[in-house]
Amino acid sequence: MESRNLAEAPTHTQNRNELKVLVLTDLAEICKKVAENSSATEDARQTAGQFVAKFNSLVPYRGEGDVDQKFQAEKLLIRIARFLPEIAAL
């Protein structure tokens, strides 16, 4: 049986944070596509574009952000998730 160094094993919190980053990245890509899609309403494109801009401002801190940047990322994830029904209605 292989022994693992517990100091190297990712924690539950680290795994959860990485999952949130993956989800937020995918949601930002969806928003980017909406922002560039001429068949979307102007309001939807503008909102999606704002989400993409906010995401891009947080990208340089991926994995190294402070508490405030992590909070901003979580807020953005929630805001985009609430925007999804509007995208689905297009």
**Strand fraction:** under 5%
Largest sheet: none
* Total DSSP E strands: 0
Question: Which bin fits the share of residues in helices?
Answer: over 70%
Report the span from N to C terminus: 53 Å
Q: How many domains is the backbone divided into?
A: 1
Note the total helix count: 3
SSE pattern: HHH
Q: What is the CA-atom radius of gyration, in angstroms? A: 16 Å
Describe the structure.
The chain has 90 residues and is an all-alpha fold. It has one domain (12-88). It has helices at residues 12-35, 42-58, 67-88. The longest helix is centred in the first third of the chain and has 24 residues, at 12-35.
Q: How is this structure best summarized?
A:
This protein has 90 residues and is mainly α.
Q: What keywords describe this structure?
A:
90 residues; mainly alpha; 3 helices; 70% helix; 0% strand
Task: Give me the secondary-structure topology.
Layout: H1 12-35, H2 42-58, H3 67-88
